[in-house]
Design brief:
124 residues, single chain, globular, mainly beta
Length: 124
């Protein structure tokens, strides 16, 4: 089975931190670039951060630069999103995704595999 499973979401206070994890079902995903997307109530799904297959390059949405960090540990088949200085507007369902390319992509319709999502709620 081809699966991506997110974990680590929950409730946080504004200014707090959470770390999201995305576990892949197989080693083949190590060769794929990955991204974190989020979808807030009433809004379209947007790219939060992306990372190349070996972590050599990353991309961040302007809204999270300096606060969020994407990383990956291919030995553990896992991608992480460290979320610091959380704001109320970070509240969303966060999705892990993978694209069949070593280079990251910025558009959701370019990604081939998706996790089920994990809810992040930030109280003000």
């Amino acid at each position: 089975q081809v699966q991506l499973v997110e974990s680590g979401g929950g409730l946080a206070q504004a200014g707090g931190s959470l770390r999201l994890s995305c576990a892949a079902s197989g080693r083949a995903f190590n060769f794929y670039a990955k991204g974190w997307f989020r979808q807030a109530p009433g809004k379209e799904r947007e790219l939060v951060a992306a990372i190349s297959w070996n972590g050599g390059s990353t991309h961040y949405a302007d809204s999270v630069k300096g606060r969020f960090t994407i990383s990956r540990d291919n030995a553990k088949n896992t991608v992480y999103l460290q979320m610091n200085s959380l704001k109320f507007e970070d509240t969303a369902i966060y999705y892990c995704a993978a694209v069949s390319s070593p280079d990251y992509r910025k558009s959701s319709n370019e990604y081939d595999y998706w996790g089920q999502g994990t809810q992040v709620t930030v109280s003000s």
